[in-house]
Amino acid sequence: MAEEGPFTDISGKPISLECQNYTPFCREFTVSSPKVSLLKVMGYTCSVWLLAYAVFFLTENTTVLSSAIMVTLVGMILHIHFVKVDQETLLIIGSLGIQLSSLYASGRESTTFIEMSKIKDIVINEAIYMQSIIYYLCILIKDPSEPDGVASVVPLFQSSKPRLNCLVRVYKSCQEIIAQSR
Amino acid sequence: MVLKIFFPKCCNTADSGLLVGRWIPGQDSAVVLAVIHYPFIPGQVKKYLTQMRSQTKVDLTVLGSWSMPKDGQEGMDSFLKDLSTIFPHSRWLQLSRESGKRAFTCRVVQENGKPAAKKDGDDNDDDDDDKDKIIFVHYDQRKVMLSQLHPVQEQKGSEEESTELRTMFQTVAQSEPLFFHDMYDEGPLKLTHWQSEGREASIIVELVKQASVPVCIVLTWLLSVWHWLCSFRIFHVWPVQFISSKLSTCVQTGYRTDHFQTVFSTRKATTHMEFMRKANIFVSFLVDIALGLLLISWLYRENRISQLANTLVPAADHVAKELQELLEWLMGAPAGLKMNRALDQVLGRFFLYHIHLWISYIRLMSPFIEMILWYVGLTACLGLTFALSVLSDIVALLTFHIYCFYVYGARLYYLKIYGLSSLWRLFRGKKWNVLRQRVDSCSYDLDQLFIGTLLFTILLFLLPTTALYYLVFTLLRLVVVMFQGLIHLSVDFINSFPLFAMGLRLCRPYRVAEGVKFQVLSEEPGTPLHLRMEINPLKFSSVLQCYRTPTYSCYPKDSWVALCKKLFIGELVYPWRQKSTKTD
């Protein structure tokens, strides 16, 4: 278990990275995003309900209030189930493959496994995002028809978006394992 | 190189014995399928393996030995070492597990007898590079046997093209005959696999399987009789064929007959996709019939049919009256626009006469409406899709006059626009060259120019009137088309939705697999890596996309831009096009 900090994501919020070495050829990296902030939740709920009260004051219709409550509840449930990612995990097993999994705030886990025979390489790419240049880690998938071609690119850690120092650590560890399995 | 051993969970607590399985060609991995227990005679083991190899078409071999010593069985180790000389091998695995500990230890012995690797805690030799690393992947044998990896690769490609996981899944699925031998069989060998506690089967499933064969034969014969009926010459005369291609009920009938042929064919489904298609069609057909019967039971209760018939004629009357009022409004000064009096009166009177004809026709039919509706409603017992198609056809027939008005208005408008554009070119001294498909300059005679200009002026000033009539009737037609389109979309949805695949994804998610998930099992230091492999089921959207029954779906023929252009020019618009042949 090794943890270094403080890592931040591209907008400056603090994130944490955990590396676990099961064996020399099997490692797991977990990037955790900050949790849902209570202040934000309260802010949104209060603004929606104030708006509903204003509309109720004007129209004298109680369905406005109940619909505002329903909207807030449903919106929060949808947000924590589909949008808010708590942790992203990368499990790399030499000569078997790489497993990516995202853990959402409601406990839902979505996993993908890519076999080693399909992986060409893991690289750090640059991208232009609005007015800044960001770095992201991605897996290059081999093209079955072209021996040197790249069929597709799978970006990693898309919700947590860590910065370059965090990515470099993960990249170095993964490259050791991938070099072994070539 | 890393050696991967796929070990079934059911054999974790098996007694000591021989490991039977398969080495995956081209990869450094082995799939363990079963454990043969002591006592056994090596000759019988070899005979059994040859028999199984020919039955399953999988090259099963003895992979190695498995030792899980219980109390009083410490003398197994040396016995196990001698076994490796009896069975031919390139690599021999010696797996052992101590009761109370969770991890396995493994030794790999090469063919020349030299141990290739030893994986235990205290190795401090300096040749780390050729130390074999071993991964144990624990899998659930029953689930892997039943599951199907997506995307489905139907053709039997060479083994090197399949990835390792796919080969492993195929191996377990093909070894199904190996799992028939359970502990109650009186054979010379005792095996442990997922079914060794006894085979389970359901009587109902077996009975249904036996009964389905004669039922399929009868239904196929009935279908051939229906085909013979439909092949009569009278149905291929042009008017009948044209009408039946326009009526959605006939289209739906033809479509369902195709379905039945697929489902009730006496040939057993060989591939996974065929089986899923048959099952999907069958289940959606059953649900269709059930919904249709529900509709009938609701419709025929409390005299709803007569209520419907009693409201139908006044509704048609009301529509006709509204149309008449609309035409009167157009014949006056609609929205303050000034119409050309003469043309207005002509067009208005023409359409009013049509509506008068229509009303008399409806009034003529009104005593028979209830009986017709009663018999037509009975067709809902053939399925909800039939009822919806019949509804769409009834709507089309009842609004036939709107369709006629639209065609008249559109044709008139189209001719006017055509004439105007041609005379506009004459106005400017140009001409359309049909040969070269372009506009050329042309010198006209004086009388040609004179008449052309006159005609141009006439057409131009008559344009607002025609355009207004065209606009009104096109809007009405579009409303009817939208309604029909909605009905067709819902029919298409019921036809193509893969209910069986969705049910399978909900109730037995391991059968539709997108991939696998691994979880690292906590291990003691110095032991090989143990992983648990679970099946990652397919997402619902992928199930829908993969197993959608192809239909004659109605989809918009033109894009929005092309549609607007056609409407502007006055070309007749048929927004929904039906695919006549099924495409995958």
Automatic annotation (TrEMBL), chain A:
Q: Name one Pfam family in it.
A: PIG-H
Taxonomically, which superkingdom? Eukaryota
What keywords were assigned to this record?
A: Glycosyltransferase, Membrane, Transferase, Transmembrane, Transmembrane helix
Query: Which pathway does the UniProt entry assign to this protein?
Result: Glycolipid biosynthesis; glycosylphosphatidylinositol-anchor biosynthesis
Gene Ontology biological process: GPI anchor biosynthetic process
Q: Where are the transmembrane segments?
A: 37-58, 64-83
May I have one GO cellular component term? glycosylphosphatidylinositol-N-acetylglucosaminyltransferase (GPI-GnT) complex
- Domain Phosphatidylinositol N-acetylglucosaminyltransferase subunit H conserved per the UniProt entry, residue ranges: 89-158
Task: List the molecular function annotations (GO) for this entry.
Answer: glycosyltransferase activity
Q: Which family does it belong to?
A: Belongs to the PIGH family.
Q: Please report the name of this protein according to its UniProt entry.
A: Phosphatidylinositol N-acetylglucosaminyltransferase subunit H
Task: Give the species.
Answer: Astyanax mexicanus
Which gene does this sequence derive from? pigh
